[in-house]
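User: Quick one: structure for sequence A, then sequence B.

Assistant: Sequence A:
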Amino acid sequence: MNAVLKSYWPAILWAFFILVICNIKMGGVSHSPAFFEGFDKLVHCGLFFTMTVLYSAGYLRHNKKRGLSVLTTVLIILFMVAFGGAVELLQKYFFTWRGADWNDLFADAVGICMGMFSILVTSNAVKYANK
């Protein structure tokens, strides 16, 4: 268990950060002139990009691998999308001051795919550079 936490602790902390930041009352922040339309979607994309990179890096570190298999890639993507969906369901049913939005889940999925793409490109580049 300790080895798992050692590898995945950045992803676990980031998941808690996502849960907090996506479920706190923001007041009138969304109407502030400092934020442009669609800023919320950009934040969702960035949060889940980072989450995917941290989780995938933890998986590679924990399993001492240099790359992800297709099955592992798909499972990580599905897990991350499910996490994003859970955040939206929490916003809809428990944190009623926030609104669930399918566009937020789509932005999450875009960030997840971008993060997975970056992990795949980086891990393949490292793998082939070491040959």
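Sequence B:
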Amino acid sequence: MKQNITNNPKVIRKRPWSEDEDMKVLELIQTFGPQKWTQIAQYLQGRVGKQCRERWHNHLNPSIKRSPWDEDEEWILYLYHKVFRNKWSEIAKHIIGRTDNSIKNHWNSGMKKKQNEFSYKFNQIKLKFQREGLSTLNEYDIQQKRILEAILYNKPLRIEQNQFSENDNLEQPQIQQKKIRIEVLQSEKYTDLELIKEDEQMIQQNYQHHELDYSNRFNSHFLLQLFGFESKVLGFQESS
């Protein structure tokens, strides 16, 4: 009977991260990229992949904002919360530099005193929108306008393509090389399509030229036959 054998199971350490561990995680991310967390955790005694991933996304990622929330950010958070409610990970996709954990903590603490103020501001916008229509939103920037339209028209809010790239500023050499390969393949595909298109145009032109040449030959032959027939008729008339 086959037995399950576990060799030296890894003991998970629930303790604060040290500076040396943080530096080690950063070095390993430069090697493996911010994806292979299980592989990264193998180099850190007492850590598992989930711990390394959370440490990166919540603390070590250079794109994370650690500055206090300003009023504009809080207003944007209020608007996104009206759409997604307590789906913090969805909100984090739209607010650049803030993690879902920091968004959740700020909403449950710093936003409590300001929700009435933002609610009054939103209701004023809603009343003005009902009176004047969409032109009301022209005074707001693109991000605010998009989310206000989604709320007022009750339509889903989609993520812009460039927001993903802004949320993750760290691009590893492997990722860059992959992007280059994709661009080259797309370029080659585009070139192949262009060549096929040119071949089709040449075939069409040759076909049209052949049709014109055939038409000219047919017309010439027809004229020659007609001229010969007329000559025979005239010769017959003269002989008679």
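DSSP finds ten helices and no strands in the chain. Residues 173-239 form the longest helix (67 residues).

User: Thanks, that's what I needed.
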